[in-house]
Fold this sequence. Notes:
Layout: E1 8-11, E2 14-17, E3 19-21, H1 24-27, H2 34-43, H3 46-58, E4 63-67, H4 74-84, E5 90-95, H5 101-108, E6 112-115, H6 117-125, H7 129-141, E7 145-150, H8 153-161, E8 168-172, H9 204-212, E9 219-222, H10 234-247, E10 253-256, H11 265-276
Parallel strand pairs: 3-10, 4-5, 5-6, 6-7, 7-8, 8-9, 9-10
Antiparallel strand pairs: 1-2
Helix pairs in contact: 3-4, 6-7, 8-9, 10-11
Amino acid sequence: MAETALPTISLGPHRLSRLIVGSNPLLGYSYMGPHSDRLMREYFTVERSVEFLLACERAGITAHQFSYSPKRPVTAEILRKVRERGSRMKFFCLASRREDIRGAIAETQPIAVVHHGGVTDRCFAEGRSSVVRDFVKAVHDQGLLAGVSAHNPDCIRRIADEGWQVDFFMTCFYFLTRKFFHKPGERYQEPELLYIAYPFYRRDPEIMTSVVRQVDQPCLGFKILAAGRKCRTQGTVRDAFRFAFANIKPTDGVIVGMFPRFFDEIAANVRYTRQFGRPA
Length: 280
């Protein structure tokens, strides 16, 4: 086996590394405020994004989760250039609307399409879960794997309990959409603290991973580093990887965004995946 090989999981007929590279840093979504967002956007030019994904592949990462929007053609350009450079990396995308599915497939040729987590949560909170279910069916009609992403563990649990034909889940380690789920007629009470964009609760990863272990489908955990809040030292990063792999199923993986502007995050994350991601 090649030195760079990582432990793998199956997603339908596809074999993927258990570590999957996410897209938020490439899109300028830092969850740390506007200055960090701008720093990421300025760093990840098209060419640097291409080189970054190729570097991930050389390190043993074989899959990339991206977000599709018809208003953001640069994403398709990056994927096209990566393929032109000989990459064999698998790509799968998040999309928010059923009407975008065909465009996403035509422009990016993914192996799967996933319903966007924030939109999933809002649909469930508003009693419109059928929108998400119809999205899954529409993806299957196009012959691709269909996934659902969510931040609220109860959405994942309900889909599993109702027996939806979902091929896999993307499961956020932090319940960032709590404000959608307040009781009808009750005003949402903001937490009594100052925070940037979203509150990250310490026990959320335990709650989500308890649900992950109960569902049959593969789950891809994301925000395992709390959008950088667990990156104060490499010790805290290492502990987050160890927790993630110890608390998900052997058939599950993790999606991690990386910003190697100041440190070789690719090498470090690959090392922790080798160390903790091999099934016992």
